[in-house]
Amino acid sequence: MGRYIGPKSKIARKFGEAIFGTDKSLEKKNYPPGQHGLARKRKKVSEYGTQLLEKQKAKAIYGVQEKQFYRTYEAAARLGGITGENLLKLLECRLDNVVYRLGIAPTRAAARQLVSHRHIVVNGQVVNIPSYRLKEGDTVGVREKSKALEVIVDSLGSGRRSRYAWLEWEGSQMTGKFLSKPDRADIPENIREQLIVELYSK
């Protein structure tokens, strides 16, 4: 199945929370989309259904498809320690996610597009793989001839960028540094990662 390119509000309504940021549509219709949205709201969800929904939510937030998500989970399980936390840490190490976190792009989808279209450099070299996993000390920046791109200038000028303990930003150079993998407490996403581990452990 291909990547979903429909309205983001539909996805947010499915999970009942604004996973892509402020959403007026969600405020007006706080029930699942579709013909039976209101009826479904009252239906009791099974344990498996709750676990599956949490996995789908994490995939939607980070813009990752099933095969890649499961590969990331397997890598997290091999690391030792708490698998769920490792999973989120590895997702945060993705290049498209870091481009978004640094404020270079307004959304993860826009960040993925900037990376794919060769507007982003890692340690001075163009990298066009959104899933590229950053290591401690890597620098991420905007390619010199892409610094005037409207989407990048608007995003950096919007004031949306938040400061994260694991990232460092140098505005004058349009570069950021990936200092380390984040601690779970520093990842703001509302994901119950243990449910995902339980789902994959069945």
From TrEMBL:
A GO CC term assigned to this protein in UniProt: ribosome
SMART domains: Ribosomal_S4, S4
Keywords: Ribonucleoprotein, Ribosomal protein, RNA-binding, rRNA-binding
RNA-binding keyword on record: yes
InterPro entries to which the protein is assigned, alphabetical: Ribosomal_uS4 (IPR022801), Ribosomal_uS4_bac-type (IPR005709), Ribosomal_uS4_CS (IPR018079), Ribosomal_uS4_N (IPR001912), S4_RNA-bd (IPR002942), S4_RNA-bd_sf (IPR036986)
Ribonucleoprotein is among the record's keywords: yes
Domain Small ribosomal subunit protein uS4 N-terminal, first and last residues per copy: 3-92
Domain RNA-binding S4 residue range list: 93-157
Subunit annotation: Part of the 30S ribosomal subunit. Contacts protein S5. The interaction surface between S4 and S5 is involved in control of translational fidelity.
Chain's role: With S5 and S12 plays an important role in translational accuracy. One of the primary rRNA binding proteins, it binds directly to 16S rRNA where it nucleates assembly of the body of the 30S subunit.
Family: Belongs to the universal ribosomal protein uS4 family.
Protein name, UniProt field: Small ribosomal subunit protein uS4
Protein's organism: Alistipes ihumii AP11
